[in-house]
Each structure stands twice: as structure tokens, then as C-alpha cells.
Design a protein that fits this description.
This is L-fuculose phosphate aldolase. Pfam families: Aldolase_II. One of its GO terms (molecular function) is metal ion binding. It is an enzyme of class 4 (lyase). By secondary structure, this protein is of the alpha+beta class. It folds into 2 domains: 181 residues, 3-Layer(aba) Sandwich (L-fuculose-1-phosphate Aldolase), CATH 3.40.225; 204 residues, Class II aldolase/adducin N-terminal domain (L-fuculose-1-phosphate Aldolase, 3-Layer(aba) Sandwich). The chain is built from 13 helices and 17 strands. The strands form 2 sheets. Strands 9-13-12-11-10-14-17-16-15 form a 9-stranded mixed sheet, with helices on both faces. The protein has an 8-stranded mixed sheet with strand order 4-3-2-1-5-8-7-6, sandwiched between helices. α4 packs across α6 and α11 crosses α12.
């Protein structure tokens, strides 16, 4: 199986380094994880050439022709000089032959850690801990200097994969640019969540046993050919594709986190595949699951059994999202409850949000389904984000948006004054007005 595609057959990467760098930088800039002048990406190809973003060119407007190639002998090919940070890219590649791509940028949360001389503890979530690899901290040196290259390379030579640069930003490496981007995004996600969680209370971190439990979970389905897709299945595939992409662009999902499914009939459903970049999913990437069978040639999300248990217990549920939006996920990493009795929309859409103990969703007993009902369409998952259900794909996504907006408003309100929730009288009035009994 390919970790890059989530399919059993692994296609060759036929994208030119110029295009891969251009597209990845566009995504980083669009996600506001760097500035017009900040950050640089590189790829080392099989011939030893280093393809890198140029110096002094607008990161929000890069073209493929702007990308520079530095030959092993130092010869430069391109319209511009290479990034001023080229020395540390070269030093990392020399120190770590296994690294084939590097991402350096200045995402706000990780910069905050860098100026506090700290690195995020990725034990916040199992996926962040797994994706980010060993975390390091490189002492300050002047940007573009050989000293900075030496400082960073020494940290990478110790086996680190994600490195905070003191008073500067972050550098991550990977075996390809896709994996380096996923590592960078997951690292920033952990950093942002920690910033929010620290405003709520004491942050919980996962033990070795808890991390191992998450790593060992798997999904055992037999392969089958489902035949010709019905029009309703085709429509659900389109909807899932559109809303997963929207979720990524609104930062409700990230490329390595979250699963989204939709019921097709009594026991079959479509679900996101495992270990594929969520934003790049196409309609035919979603996996049809029917009982103990999954669509041939694809691997379903490792959360598929949890989705299946919820569908089995709750016939009214037509769509399910497991997601990690930063603000709601911050509540999952602390003992602070999320009270959605804040504004009418929050309560009408979400009712009372339950909290599930860590790992319930990994069990084979379907216990996660007990935390969902018609009266409780959403739940906080301890150190693992949130679970939201809906009567349609749109309804589930809408509730996810409301949940994250509510969580962000509550966190913001705590910095202003005491949070005032709606009294029982108001809740009773809402239940009557919107038939919530």
C-alpha cells in the first residue's frame, strides 16, 4: 500500500519538481502558514539536484519557471537566485541522506513557540505524534548563514524530523514533498491547538500505552467488486468530495486527520480512504463499505468500524464526521467542558455535547455509538478531536462548522470576561419553538 495514495497499487510520481514545489507553496500560502516573502521549499532529486524556491519572489504568485535548480557542482539554473536559506537546505541533505524534501516557513503558532524557546509536545494527539516524528530545537543563528545551516543540520543528524528554529520558525524534512508538507501541517496544527488549549486549562498528553493503542488499531475488510454505482451513490461521492475539500480549506480538517462518511443504504456507506491527502481526494477515491467488505483496490479509513457501529445503532444518522478543528479539539485536550448553551443556533444544532473517554472509538465493541443520539448529535473525543453526525452530508458539515465556531467564541469570550450561558428557561423556550423534545 502507498502511504501517499492510500491505494494498494502505488503509482510512480510523475509530477516535475517545479510543479510540485509551486503547488505546495500555493497551498501553504493559501492556508496562511507563511508570508509573501517568508518560507522556502526544496526537493532533492535522484540525480542530486536541489530544486528550490527563489529569493525575493512573491510566494503568493509563484510560477513553475520561478523554481531554481542547483546542480551538485553548485551550478544554478533558473531565472532567479536560489533562496537565501539554500545553505541550510544543502546542510540538511548532507546530514540526512534519507530526506528528499524540506519545508521551511513561519506559521504563526510555531513562530510563537520559537520565540518562547519551546517546541510543541506532539503527544497531544496520536496522529500528530506519528506524523511529526522526532521533534527538535535548533539554537539561533543569522538567517542565510553557514552557522544556521550547521545548527539545523546538527539537530536533524540527531534523528529529528520537525525542528523549531529559535526566534525564526520551523523546518521539517520528509522522504518526498508530500510527506514533508503533511508533517509541517500536522506540526502547526499541534502548535495551534496547544495555544488554544492552554487558554482553557491544564493540557493532557498521551502515554506510551495510549499512543500504542491508537497505532495498533486496524480495519479488517474483505475486498469485493460492488458493481455499477447507482445515481444516489454517485451523488453522495460528489457531496463527500466537495465537503471534504471545503473542510480542508476552512481548516476544519487537515490532510492527515479526519474521516467523513455517508450512508448509502441499510448497511453500506462511503468513507474517506486511509492515509490519503484529504484536500486532494476525488469522488472515486471514497471507499464503499458493505458489512465486512470494502471496495476492491482501496483501503477504508481506520475509523470505518466506528462509523459502521454508529450507523448500525442509529438509523436516523446519514452522515458522520470525525474531525480535528483547532478550537473544538483544544477542548478535547483539556478537562474543560464545552457548553454550547451560548447562542440559540449553537444549542439548536448541537444540543448537549457529550465527552468520550480516550480510545472508545478504537474499540471493537462499538461503544462509540453510545455517545451519539438524536438528542446528542456531536461528541468531544478525549485527545482526538470531535465526532459529528447529521441527517445528510450537508447537515453533518453544518453542525461541524457550528461546533467549531461555538468553541472558538467560548475561548475568545474567556479572554474578555465570564462566559454567560443561556438559562434553563431560554433552553425550554428553544426546545418548544424548534420541536427539540
Amino acid at each position: 500500500m502507498s502511504l501517499r495514495t492510500g491505494r494498494i497499487d502505488m503509482p510512480r510520481n510523475l509530477v516535475h519538481p517545479r510543479d510540485e514545489i509551486m503547488r505546495t507553496m500555493d497551498r501553504i500560502y493559501r492556508y496562511r502558514m507563511t508570508t509573501t516573502s517568508g518560507g522556502n521549499l526544496s526537493i532533492r532529486d535522484e540525480a542530486g539536484n536541489i530544486w528550490i524556491t527563489p529569493a525575493r519572489v512573491d510566494k503568493g504568485n509563484l510560477t513553475r519557471n520561478d523554481i531554481v535548480c542547483v546542480k551538485p557542482n553548485g551550478e544554478v539554473e533558473g531565472l532567479h537566485p536560489p533562496s537565501s536559506e539554500f545553505p541550510f537546505h544543502k546542510a540538511i541533505y548532507a546530514a540526512r541522506p534519507d530526506i528528499k524534501a524540506i519545508v521551511h516557513a513561519h506559521p504563526v503558532a510555531l513562530v510563537a513557540f520559537s520565540i518562547c524557546q519551546l517546541a510543541p509536545n506532539t503527544r497531544l494527539f496520536h496522529q500528530a505524534h506519528s506524523v511529526c516524528g522526532k521533534v527538535g530545537f535548533a539554537p539561533y543563528a543569522c538567517p542565510g548563514s553557514e552557522a544556521l545551516g550547521q545548527s539545523i543540520a546538527e539537530t536533524f543528524s540527531e534523528g529529528c524530523d520537525s525542528v523549531i528554529l529559535e526566534n525564526h520558525g520551523v523546518v521539517v524534512g520528509g522522504d518526498c514533498l508530500a510527506s514533508a508538507f503533511k508533517r509541517f501541517e500536522a506540526f502547526e496544527f499541534a502548535g495551534k491547538t496547544l495555544v488554544k488549549a492552554n487558554q482553557l486549562g491544564e493540557v493532557r498528553y498521551l502515554s506510551d500505552t495510549q499512543l500504542e493503542a491508537a497505532a495498533q488499531r486496524g480495519v479488517d475488510f474483505q475486498s469485493y467488486d460492488p458493481g455499477v454505482a447507482t445515481a444516489s451513490e454517485q451523488e453522495l461521492r460528489r457531496q463527500l468530495c466537495d465537503f471534504v475539500r471545503r473542510g480542508c480549506r476552512q481548516r476544519l480538517l487537515i490532510s492527515t486527520e479526519g474521516s467523513f462518511s455517508a450512508r448509502v443504504d441499510g448497511q453500506s456507506f462511503l468513507i474517506t480512504p486511509t492515509q490519503m491527502d484529504r484536500e486532494l481526494l476525488q469522488a472515486d477515491d471514497f471507499v464503499l463499505v458493505d458489512g465486512d467488505r470494502r471496495e476492491a483496490g482501496k483501503l477504508a479509513s481506520r475509523a470505518a468500524r466506528a462509523h459502521q457501529a454508529i450507523y448500525a445503532k442509529h438509523p436516523h444518522v446519514q452522515a458522520i464526521v470525525f474531525a480535528h478543528p483547532v478550537n473544538a479539539t483544544a477542548f478535547s485536550a483539556t478537562a474543560t467542558p464545552l457548553d454550547v448553551r451560548t447562542i440559540p443556533e449553537s444549542y439548536v444544532f448541537l444540543r448537549d455535547v457529550k465527552r468520550a473517554d480516550y480510545g472508545v472509538q478504537y474499540g471493537d465493541d462499538g461503544g462509540i455509538a453510545d455517545f451519539i443520539s438524536a438528542r446528542n448529535p456531536a461528541a468531544i473525543l478525549e485527545n482526538d478531536g470531535v465526532l459529528v453526525t447529521g441527517l445528510s452530508v450537508l447537515d453533518a458539515f453544518d453542525r461541524l462548522e457550528v461546533l467549531e465556531s461555538t468553541a472558538e467564541a467560548v475561548i475568545n469570550a474567556k479572554s474578555i470576561g465570564a462566559v454567560s450561558t443561556m438559562p434553563t428557561k431560554v433552553i425550554d423556550e428553544l426546545c418548544e419553538a424548534f420541536n427539540l423534545h
